[in-house]
Amino acid sequence: MSTPGPRRITIKDVAELAGVGVATVSRVLSGGSASAETRERVLDAATKLDYRPSALGRNLRQQRSGGVALLVPDITDGFYARLCDGVLSCARSYREPVTIGVTGDDAEQEADLVGGLLEQSMDRIIAVPSGDGEMWASVVRAGLNVVFADRRVWSAGQHARTLDEVPAVLSDDRSGLRTAIEYLTGLGHRKIGFLARQGMNQRVAAFREVMGDLLDEDLVVFARASRDSAYAAAAGLFQRRADLTAVIAGGNMLGEAAVLAARELYVRIPRDLSLIMFDDVPWAELCSPPLTVIAQPASDVGYRAAELVLRHGRRPRTVSLPTELIVRSSCGPRR
Amino acid sequence: MSTPGPRRITIKDVAELAGVGVATVSRVLSGGSASAETRERVLDAATKLDYRPSALGRNLRQQRSGGVALLVPDITDGFYARLCDGVLSCARSYREPVTIGVTGDDAEQEADLVGGLLEQSMDRIIAVPSGDGEMWASVVRAGLNVVFADRRVWSAGQHARTLDEVPAVLSDDRSGLRTAIEYLTGLGHRKIGFLARQGMNQRVAAFREVMGDLLDEDLVVFARASRDSAYAAAAGLFQRRADLTAVIAGGNMLGEAAVLAARELYVRIPRDLSLIMFDDVPWAELCSPPLTVIAQPASDVGYRAAELVLRHGRRPRTVSLPTELIVRSSCGPRR
DNA sequence: AATGATGATGGAATCGTTTCCATGAGCACT
DNA sequence: AGTGCTCATGGAAACGATTCCATCATCATT
Fold first, then answer.
1. How many Cα atoms within 13 Å fall on the side-chain side of residue B258?
2. What are phi and psi of B194, to 5 degrees?
3. Is there a single domain that holds both residue A139 and residue A103?
4. Number of domains chain A is built from
5. What pLDDT shows up at residue A2?
6. Which bases on strand D have an atom closer than 7 Å to a protein beta carbon?
7. What is the mean pLDDT of residues B163-177?
8. Contact B63/A56, CB-based, under 8 Å?
9. CB A132 within 8 A of CB A123
10. Within this chain, do residues A285 and A180 fall inside the same structural domain, yes or no?
């Protein structure tokens, strides 16, 4: 069926043509020391033969496969798509392949995925973590090079130490939220709701903190990862609490759900309800009315995380990227 | 710094504990023949030691690394994000890791990426191809297992044969376009424009064909992959041809650009201009006015493509998935 | 001149798996 | 009893790189 084909060019061929040993070729090609003359001969031979080192051989020897793994909850969500894009673009400049896995914000799936990566001897992971600290702690202790992006796992119990060591690139939810809430209170709003997705602990915590006395725990609701669940959460909140005058959606899917639910229930934005959404997606401007948003540097988060995991130099504990309130037309004064 | 740690459990350890040779262990674990008793002993030993085969060793021996590569123009585009999601979800059920690369619809970057994959000895690629046939033909001849998704490369010259053999999963642009154009002509439109992105040859060809006598070549315009370019193309078209009464956007980024440009230029949709967009994204419904779209089964395209490349059974040449016109409010009668 | 330090070099081991091949046992048939 | 067949089995050879280690040359220092 398939012809034997031309044998792959190996380091041995290069060594032979250059009249040196394989060890020397390896050294030259990976930047080790060698005399100028030898170096030239080797390089010559390599180009003449169009030699491409096999990642397979290298990987086995080094007991680690190259490349980076990236775990996100949902690649279909514009925010994570941009985050991926950032990672991809950084990894590209290092010529490192990126393996992507979708966790669906589910601890079990995440653990599964990580298991697969372990089997592949992947030792660099960028993750938007969903699972419990237990699992991540064990991964870190196994010597894997982990960087968290967008959120980190809560240090719990005995693993606190291990997990606090893990670098993370986050967007500064708190400051964005603060600006947003100040903006809303400035417009007279007092009953402000928050639409969250499970796993958004950090963001919710920031909301609670910034709201301070104004906080009404009954106004923060959680949805699962699906669109339907987001819609249900939004619709439920709107119906349950007629006194609600403003709401902050914790992500673009939540925002979408809020707009839809509002429309369905004849709640007019911004007349009856002011809406601010986390994450500035292209359609926020196309929406009717154009949505006021807290813009997040999704792509930068990914890029920086990739840098952290790839450069591997001195590692700052955690970096926090600024968010920005972009005012459009979805907020109005309290009526 | 790092402790030597417990040595990895290898097949040799299992063999020793089970009192058999490594060859036997390998056979048992990969479903070869062995006596019932031996099989049990091996399986026992493996679980007792919590043995995980190393993908590295296997890969080197088999001269191919597992997993699938996926090349898309832009992961930030909702359509391709869904396509990725489909691939990911299929690959998951085969426990195969997926490596994603972004081509930016650029032949050179694509070739670069493919080079990287070659180096990794990846031999299964799902691609939304951007590059020339030359390159893909050589990849296919090198024995790689390629499946095209969303579009295929045009068979040119001597490579026609090779490339026609490559399976592809496409969405049936033609039928969707036909319905859309019939819908528009039914509303009285005659001057119908098409906003395309470079590389959308197939879709443009379908447009030309379906339009037949109505086709005005001056009304089909091309943009590059960026948002800005899409906006420029749309705005340019709207300004240049005041007699335009309807336009079809070849993708969601083009549609977005069209809405924005129209708004900017005080072109009212659907009063002054009817708009139909390829791809039903969540925000199409949130847009003002809600957009009439040609829905594409992006996720299915990805899923089927992954199936094709992974199952590798008898391979149908090409499969075409249906598209559907979803009428909302962005089209009106010609004025 | 003897000694030591430095640097370039190549042979060989190593990584963990799959697979080729030879061996030997068991069995049926002549 | 001898022959041939089918199995299960294990040793050993790949796969292609990196890297340890020993060797040797060169040069400076005492």
1. 35
2. -135, 125
3. yes
4. 3
5. 43
6. 7-20
7. 92
8. yes
9. no
10. yes
- Separation in Å, CA of A187 to nearest CA in chain B: 25
Please check whether residue A329 lies inside any domain of the structure: no
Strands (DSSP E) along A128-237, which ranges?
Answer: 145-149, 168-171, 192-197, 220-223
In a domain, A268, yes or no: yes
Starting at the earlier edge strand, list the strands of the sheet with A274-278.
A220-223, A192-197, A246-249, A274-278, A292-295, A324-326
Amino acid letter, A170: L
> Nearest by CB to A85, which of B102, B121, B227?
B102
Residue A330 domain flag: no
Which residues are CB-contacts of B50 (< 8 A; sequence separation ≥ 6)? B9
Closest to A118 in 3D by CA, of A58, A64, A74 = A64
Same structural domain for residues B222 and B276?
yes
Query: B interface mutation test: which of A92, A119, A231 has the most B CBs within 10 A?
Result: A119
Residues in contact with A15: Cβ distance below 8 Å, sequence separation at least 6, in sequence order: A21, A22, A24, A25
Q: Which residues pair with A70 in a beta bridge?
A: A100, A126
Q: Which residue range(s) make up the domain with A270?
A: 173-297
Residues A260 and A152 in one domain: no
Comparing every residue's Cα with the C1' atom of nucleotide C19, the nearest one is: B23
CATH number for A205:
3.40.50.2300
Q: How confident is the model at residue B131 (pLDDT cuts 50, 70, 90)?
A: confident
Q: Are residues B167 and B303 in the same domain?
A: yes
The distance between the two most distant Cα atoms of chain B, rounded to a whole number of Å, is 86
Tell me: the pLDDT tens digits for A248-286? 999 999 999 999 999 999 999 999 999 999 999 999 999
pLDDT of amino acid A5: 58
Residue A196 pairs in a beta bridge with: A222
Tell me whether residue A58 is in a domain.
no
Q: How many other CB atoms are there within 10 angstroms of residue B63's CB atom?
A: 11
The answer to whether residues B178 and B292 belong to one domain is yes
CA distance B265 to B277: 19
If asked whether residues A130 and A90 sit together in one domain, one would say: yes
Say how far A43 CA is from D21 C1', in Å.
25
Portion 100-119 of B in contact with A at CB < 8 A? 100-102, 116-119
* B72 and B19 share one domain: no
